[in-house]
Amino acid sequence: MILIVDDKPENILSLKSVLSLHSFPTDSASSGEAALKKVLKNNYALIILDVQMPDMDGFEVAEAISGYSKTKDVPIIFLSAVNTDKRFITRGYNSGGIDYITKPIDPEILLLKVKTFYKLYEQTRQLNEMQDSLRSEIEFRKKAQQEINDKALELKFVLESIPQIAFTTKADGTIEYRNSQWMLYADSESDFPVTHPDDVCIAEELKKMVKKGKPIELEVRVKKHDQQQYRYHLLRVLPVKEKNAIVKWVGTFTDIEDQKQTVKRKDEFISIASHELKTPLTSIKGYVQLLDRISHDNASRLYIERTLLQIRKLDSLIADLLDISKIESGKLKFNMRLFDIDSMIENTIEITSQTHTDYIVERTGKANVKVFGDEIRLEQVLFNFLSNAIKYSPQSKKIEVITKRKPSNKLFIGIKDFGIGISQKDQQNIFDKYYRTEVSTHNFQGLGIGLYICAEILRRHNFEFGVESEPGKGSLFYFLIPLEIN
Ligand code: ADP
Fold it and tell me: Which atom of ligand 1 is nearest to the CA of 436?
């Protein structure tokens, strides 16, 4: 908008009409004071200022305008019928005005000047806007950078205060920061701590991790410079993401040697204890069987039978514990050969049904094929799945044993129950050693090793296996035997 300042209304009117004709919006003030009030309140692109006015003349108004920071850059065109000599023109420029037009006004000249100033004003305004946005962009970046620095500092502080070896890497895996523990294990700031010769190469694992964009968690043995012994550490490296992109990785090595030793001692104890228990139990079993043979009165035979049942339970518990030791020491052996899976299934169902007469074990489908594997170990798996199906279905007495050939030429063997079921979360850990669900811990007896042994047997056969289950509806434990070999 253009502000026209003149004490004569007719002058204002004629200027307004010339400018409006060319679509310039205008405003007016009839005195210097009124003009000053308006410039402070509104924004003008140009001021056309009459020099000769009572009270405050145009030069005084211009001086005041150029004194305010808000208005100091607004161009001014002075208008005057007099004061046309050089001295007055110079004064006009000194007081902050930019151009000078003498009366009588030539509308064409006025318009030319107004257009030029208007354009200039627009350009200046755009430049200022650009400058402002650049300034705020710089401010924003500075603040963001500061925040990143603060966060990095905070992270370093945390990583420095923990007892673990800790480090961060850039998104590409190059080490960026390491805490003071690092140098107790590593040869240099850019080398990873020295690992046991039999363990994986950490740098290689990190390369793979960066490529896949997935966190890693692995056990490695590292040792301090001043120590002879390697100690097991859990290396965990997690990504730090910003807007879904990985910006860095944070890693820690936690000393787990003591836990490892405890587990080892426990495994050793289980191994020794089960071996020690096995020998007297075998003798007890022998003597009771002998007693069974020579005893003829019904009451004694009933008690002997009950004793034998308990002996068998104890026997299978000890056998499981011995299997755990064999797995741990890598001594679980397999006798692989072709065998008739149908008769193995029938046999297992029969034995299970004999001891659980209140359950109905239904068989659907037949394999009609010989399979390759360790018959006794696979029978152990089937027996375990069946015993669990019975144990964890106290309310529902029906169990299904499903045998079917899959189009992938694999034989599917599944044990389906309609019992308590297993939650999704528990299903992920169900095959882990000593894992028992909370429900079963409180309501059912067990050690949590049966499924672990089954999983190990099936893994060693390279058979796929798994569980499908819904809490309250039941479970299906299954494995798949490849039939290519037949
Ligand atoms: P155990 O039965 O001695 O606890 P297992 O290794 O055989 O040990 O089973 C581990 C856990 O898996 C059990 O404690 C139980 O929580 C769960 N589980 C196994 N089979 C079933 C099943 N058929 N239905 C529900 N839960 C089961």
Answer: 14
